[in-house]
UniProtKB/TrEMBL annotation:
It comes from Nocardiopsis metallicus. This is Integrase. One of its GO terms (molecular function) is DNA binding. InterPro entries: CB (IPR044068), DNA_brk_join_enz (IPR011010), Integrase-like_cat_sf (IPR013762), Integrase_catalytic (IPR002104), Integrase_recombinase_N (IPR010998), Integrase_SAM-like_N (IPR004107), Tyrosine_recombinase_XerCD (IPR050090). It comes from the Bacteria. Residues 279-477 form the Tyr recombinase domain. Residues 131-235 form the Core-binding (CB) domain.
Length: 499
């Protein structure tokens, strides 16, 4: 093992009165009369001869301004221990010496012996600058060209809005789960600030948070999922000094799946009285859905779209992006192979996320009738428009033949529902309602799951199953009839059990 020559010294900034030259270590004030160093004068430093550069030039590791002799010896011993890791291998010694020299120039801390040992064990160049979380996340996202555009936008938003502002400057190999938890605590503190400002009587305070959104628990879970995915790749990479995925260990309150609630007469009455909405996911009864569809007939260019979603439970992007080429009215089928994703004010067409999402749905006779009438109307509008018609090939279009912007469809849905005097639900609530009606009608859950594009029947039951009041009443009467020894009433068969 090479013996690395170094020394510890003490010096000051005093100068010779005659020549003006710095006295350095020759200053008589550095020592007391007995020869001991004067603790009140001068600073400590160290100097270590480093292996020559790859070009053969001599160099030293030298630093002054330390508070004590012990501190200087500790630093010197640390540098020697780093160089000893090379075990006499010339190229590795040069790398470690470069690392030391770069840290001195940048005035940054030297890496620990354990960090350098790990990098040597993986065959990595120890001179590589320590990577921050922010730099890693940017490089990680850029290195994933095959991501769906919607997923990429979601990841980029989490990285830009939360992960980099809160964790970006932390070294990747020093990131702790406690720091991830602290990020979520800060986000929640900002949530409270926004809510308090919204309730303030001061208009300026309210204006200060205008446009700022409260980050929901489900969004926090998605932020953590983004970080967890990125760190999983770092753990698998031999180039990154990461052994543990700290995002997996960061604690967050559980986020139970939001179960839909039906707008029963009692809930509607309370909503009409004080505006109370009892749940985050609300579903109309079949009667309320019929009222909406009847009212939507006034909006010729939207009624068929809303009818298909209400009956078959298509997602918004799937309905907006459905082409005539994938729709076979004679067979009563439609292939769901595309969806329109909205990113800000632009849209792009992609395939559904999962394999189960790419499916063929069966159209009932009433829906086929609605679509046939719509296709005839659309063809007449196309002939009337002539060259002004945009040949998008989509089933549902605006007056010029171009496709709908998904957000505009949602806006129109809310507007029509309000005009019909119905309690509020989201457009996605029609999908919940379609699933609930199918299950309540006794349709096998496997069929409903396949039609909705779910990968498991458990997800369908757990998320989309709502019990309508009349169905629950029939189930209750059927149970009571069995206890009385009577036969179950007609129509009680095929009910989906309440779990």
């Amino acid at each position: 093992m090479t013996s690395h020559q170094g020394r510890v010294f003490k010096r000051c900034g005093c100068r010779d009165e005659n020549s003006g030259r710095a006295l350095g270590a020759r200053c008589p004030k550095l020592r007391r009369q007995g020869g001991a160093f004067n603790p009140r004068h001068g600073d400590w430093g160290y100097q270590l001869e480093l292996p020559r550069t790859s070009e053969g030039k001599r160099r030293q590791a030298r630093r002054a301004g330390l508070e004590s002799q012990e501190q200087a010896w500790e630093a010197l011993d640390h540098l020697k221990a780093l160089l000893d890791l090379a075990q006499g291998e010339g190229d590795v010694e040069v790398q470690i010496a470069d690392l030391i020299q770069n840290a001195l120039k940048a005035r940054t801390c030297f890496p620990s012996v354990e960090e350098v040992r790990k990098r040597l064990g993986t065959g990595a160049d120890v001179r590589k600058e320590a990577l921050t979380v922010g730099a890693y996340l940017k490089a990680w996202l850029a290195a994933k060209p095959d991501l769906a555009e919607g997923t990429r936008t979601s990841y980029a938003g989490h990285i830009r809005k939360y992960l980099i502002p809160y964790l970006g400057q932390v070294r990747l190999d020093r990131l702790k789960s406690s720091q991830v938890e602290a990020m979520f605590e800060s986000i929640e503190a900002n949530n409270e600030r926004i809510l308090e400002a919204r309730e303030s009587e001061d208009a300026k305070v309210r204006a200060s948070v205008r446009g700022q959104r409260v980050v929901s628990l489900s969004t926090k879970h998605r932020i953590r999922a983004t970080l967890r995915s990125a760190l999983s790749d770092a753990v698998r990479s031999p180039e990154e000094p990461v052994n543990v995925n700290v995002a997996s260990h960061a604690r967050l309150p559980s986020c139970p799946r939001k179960r839909p609630l039906v707008w029963t007469p009692g809930r509607v009455e309370r909503w009409e009285k004080d505006g109370t909405i009892p749940g985050e996911v609300m579903v109309w009864t079949p009667e309320q859905t019929r009222t909406f569809l009847e009212h939507s007939r006034k909006y010729v260019w939207l009624h068929p779209l809303f009818h298909l979603i209400a009956v078959k439970g298509l997602r918004r992007g799937e309905a907006v992006g459905l082409p005539w080429a994938h729709t076979r009215l004679t067979d009563g089928e439609a292939d769901i192979r595309t969806q329109v994703v909205q990113l800000s004010w632009t849209t792009l067409t992609s395939t559904p996320k999962s394999e189960a999402g790419q499916r063929t749905i069966t159209l009932d006779a009433d829906t086929v009738k609605v679509l046939r009438a719509w296709k005839k109307f659309q063809n007449q509008a196309r002939l009337k428009a002539g060259p002004e018609w945009v040949d998008s090939g989509l089933v549902f279009t605006r007056q010029d033949g171009s496709g709908w912007l998904p957000s505009h469809v949602s806006d129109w849905f809310t507007r029509i529902a309000r005009a019909a005097g119905l309690p509020p639900i989201t457009l996605h609530g029609l999908r919940h309602g379609a699933a609930s009606m199918a299950l309540a009608a006794g349709t096998d859950v496997k069929v409903v799951s396949a039609e909705l594009g779910h990968s498991t029947t458990h997800f369908t039951q757990d998320t989309y199953q709502s019990v309508f009041p009349d169905v629950a009443k029939a189930a209750a009467e059927a149970t009571a009839a069995l206890l009385r020894g009577a036969s179950a009433p007609a129509g009680a068969g095929g009910l989906v059990p309440v779990r």
